[in-house]
From TrEMBL:
Gene3D superfamilies assigned to the protein according to its UniProt record, in alphabetical order: 1.10.1660.10
Keywords: DNA-binding
Protein's recorded name: MerR family transcriptional regulator
Source organism per UniProt: Actinocorallia aurantiaca
Residues in HTH merR-type domain copies: 1-68
PANTHER family xref list: HTH MERR-TYPE DOMAIN-CONTAINING PROTEIN (PTHR30204:SF93), REDOX-CYCLING DRUG-SENSING TRANSCRIPTIONAL ACTIVATOR SOXR (PTHR30204)
Length: 135
């Protein structure tokens, strides 16, 4: 099947499918006309890629995991190397979430402080603050 049909069957646009191919996640043969030709397994492969991307995995992680993937969801065979890679990715996500929570808390404190001083009409006219803050 050509890239357009694969896109229709998976809901993934051609640009993304070409990206998956460039990342080594998807393979296509070239017809005599130069067009990409995908086999029937490409539909399952694209669905697996989409699910794994939805789990926050990078294309590099997915390239490593795909040989262990079974089914559309996919189910992953739990070899030790695979588990190590997924646990590492989970730790990176936890670290990012911690940093985001810290940033959110800091921003909330700034908002609270600004609201308190705003109620006291500081700066006195408020014009200096309004002129420097983007709308």
């Amino acid at each position: 099947m050509r890239i357009g049909e694969l896109g229709r069957r998976t809901g993934v646009n051609a640009h993304q499918l070409r990206y998956y191919e460039a990342q080594g996640l998807l393979e296509a043969e070239r017809g005599t006309n130069g067009y990409r030709e995908y086999d029937e397994n490409a539909v399952l492969r694209v669905k697996q890629i989409r699910h794994l991307l939805g789990a926050g995995l990078s294309s590099e992680d997915i390239a490593y995991l795909l040989p262990c993937a079974l089914g559309e969801a996919p189910e992953l065979l739990g070899c030790p190397e695979l588990l190590t890679a997924m646990r590492s990715r989970l730790q990176r996500l936890d670290d990012q979430m911690d940093r985001l929570a810290q940033s959110r808390d800091a921003l909330a404190r700034y908002i609270d402080a600004a609201a308190r001083t705003g109620e006291q009409d500081y700066p006195p006219s408020g014009d200096a603050c309004r002129e420097s803050v983007p709308a």
